[in-house]
Amino acid sequence: MYMLIAGFIGYFFGCLHGSQIVSKLKKVDIKNSGVKNSGASNTTILLGWKYGVLVAIIDIFKATLAILLMLFILNEYGITGERQTLLIYLTAFFVVVGHNYPITMKFSGGKGTASVVGVLLAIDWKIALIGIGILLIFTFATDYLVIGVLFMYLSFLTTTFIFFGLEPTMIVILLTLLSIMKHMENYKRIIRKEETKLSSMFGKK
């Protein structure tokens, strides 16, 4: 029962896309323009960093809210310990699945990066601090957001194993593989030297 609740809450919140809200505000089809992605990075490329930040904030905190809601339900019914942790990670998984494959966008959404940041913030402040720190370090060091994202996932995987053990780590492995698959075109563009650099994104107002 609780697994179904975790799946429903996660997927429902995941389908609430920041880019859809901004698309309606600006009357721009973000999903089918630029690099054809509905996330914050493509929004930044198309509309500038202010709208990119707005999309990121929505996509981050929808994940945080989903997990906090699930945590509230579990605490109300006395579900604690390892079972609670596993259900929280399951909720996180479905938030990202909902973001990447939302029914509201014909199952073609974003890449889940901002939502994973929201997941980190909700799960544990130490995991969040390490993961976001690594994201920033590798992003600014390479000037490619996608490289920072990859190392953030590797950090998330490592810290989850250290703090919570094998079962939650298996969920993070699935999230990492999903991220690699969704970002494959970005990696190919880096090799071809066609990927948009972070510095050029923030050159837009």
Helix content: over 70%
Low-pLDDT segments: none
State mean pLDDT (0 to 100 scale). 88
Strand content: under 5%
**Count of β-strands:** 0
Describe this structure in words.
The chain has 205 residues and is an all-alpha fold. 76% of the residues lie in helices and 0% in strands. It has eleven helices and no strands. Helix 2 packs antiparallel against helix 4 (49-76), helix 4 (49-76) packs across helix 6 (113-123) and helix 5 (81-100) runs parallel beside helix 9 (166-182). The radius of gyration is 17 Å and the shape is globular.
Write a concise keyword list for the protein shown above.
single chain; 11 helices; 205 residues; mainly alpha; globular
Question: What order do the helices and strands come in, and which of them pair?
Answer:
Layout: H1 2-14, H2 18-26, H3 40-47, H4 49-76, H5 81-100, H6 113-123, H7 125-142, H8 145-164, H9 166-182, H10 184-191, H11 198-201
Helix pairs in contact: 1-4, 1-5, 2-4, 3-4, 4-5, 4-6, 5-6, 5-9, 6-7, 7-8, 8-9
Give a short overview.
This protein is mostly helical and 205 residues long. The protein contains 11 helices and no strands.
